[in-house]
Design a protein that fits this description.
single chain, 303 residues, alpha/beta, TIM Barrel, 8-stranded parallel sheet, 8 strands, binds 3-hydroxy-3-methylglutaryl-coenzyme A, binds magnesium ion
């Protein structure tokens, strides 16, 4: 039998943003910068370093400007930030981010809770930011969150996700990241969703952003790989969650994903030992064990 998988995949490391936005213990700015620089040293080439959102909404990322300005930048690495509106975009521009990301849920209720606007109004806001970004030659990607299900509205129609993916593609997003914000998806659903989106936009522009609440993320990634998806978001140690999506736990752990991909002969460019070292350091700062399975094989001594 012949199996065909991509030879290499692109990763978007979201630990410093998605990971730290949901933590109870605050990590100080210098340690955040050290975390980001360590992740880059492990070979990660795209990294979402923060979010230019209202700090009243996301207090753990209130030092976003200091973090963005403090990182010693490395050539060949794209430093990204989440922006929910023009104000956030301008901060990203002023702090010399290489790319930005928008987030829009496939459900009105989640959009209201998360970004204080219904889907259509929020999309119009992004359309304006996208025009600016195109003028500035700032690459942008779009998250479609709650694509596999919404914590408030339940099932989400595939057609809704496809519609939003098409809209963002028309705006000029270089990639559309389909988000399982509450980790409710399964491999069959992943196949169906990716296939439906890929009928409208090129497979090369599709990424997956999978929270691992029910332990399905790697199985879902395997399903997507078998369709030829080559871009995945992941979070060091399995950090992550959205404070405005009840039940959203960590993302798929970057270590676990890289381990699986390497074992399958798929290139990631990441040094696993270095990455585990960085995640273990963050684990110490957060004073709790992170969820990555691979990390549990690296801890020495009694836990
Ligand atoms: P709003 O209250 O409607 O904003 O919030 P507004 O425009 O009415 O302004 C009110 C105040 O907010 C003003 O300040 C603005 O200046 C300020 P005031 O005059 O009262 O002092 N403001 C800002 N401050 C800093 N940065 C900004 C900004 N914009 C306005 N960009 C807003 C709307 C979108 C700002 C708010 O709802 C917000 O910040 N939401 C962010 C929520 C968030 O970050 N959630 C987590 C990330 S999403 C996620 O995790 C899912 C994802 O991982 C994918 C997945 O898992 O599927 C991406
Ligand atoms: Mg997320």
């Amino acid at each position: 039998m012949n199996f065909s998988f991509p030879q290499s995949v692109k990763l978007m490391e979201v630990g410093p943003r998605d990971g730290l936005q949901n933590e109870r213990l605050l990590v100080d700015t210098m340690n955040k910068i050290g975390f980001i620089e360590g992740l880059v040293a492990s070979g990660l080439k795209r990294i979402e370093v923060t979010a230019f959102v209202n700090p009243k909404w996301i207090p753990p990322l209130a030092d976003q400007v200091e973090v963005a300005k403090g990182i010693r930048r490395q050539k060949g690495v794209s430093y990204a930030a989440l922006v929910p509106n023009m104000k956030g975009y301008e901060q990203a521009l002023n702090t010399k981010m290489d790319e930005v990301a928008f987030v829009l849920a496939a459900s009105d209720t989640h959009n209201l809770k998360n970004i204080n606007a219904k889907t259509d109004a929020a999309f119009s806001r992004y359309a304006e930011v996208a025009m600016r970004a195109l003028d500035d030659k700032m690459p942008f990607r779009a998250y479609i969150s709650c694509a596999f299900g919404c914590p408030y509205e339940g099932d989400v129609a595939v057609s809704r996700v496809v519609h939003l993916a098409k809209l963002f593609n028309q705006l000029g997003a270089y990639e559309i990241s389909i988000g399982d914000t509450i980790g409710i998806g399964d491999p069959k659903q992943t196949l169906e969703l990716v296939q439906a989106v890929a009928e409208e936009i090129s497979l090369d522009k599709i990424a997956l952003h999978l929270h691992d609440t029910r332990g399905m993320a790697l199985a879902n990634i395997f399903a997507a790989l078998s369709l030829g998806v080559k871009s995945f978001d992941a979070s060091a140690g399995g950090l992550g969650g959205c404070p405005y999506a009840p039940g959203a736990s960590g993302n798929v752990a970057t270590e676990d994903l890289v381990y699986m991909l390497q074992a399958m002969g798929i290139e990631t460019g990441v040094d696993l030992d270095l990455l585990c070292h960085v995640s273990l350091k963050m684990e110490k700062l957060l004073k709790r064990q992170l969820s990555s399975k691979l990390l549990s094989t690296k801890r020495i001594g009694p836990s």
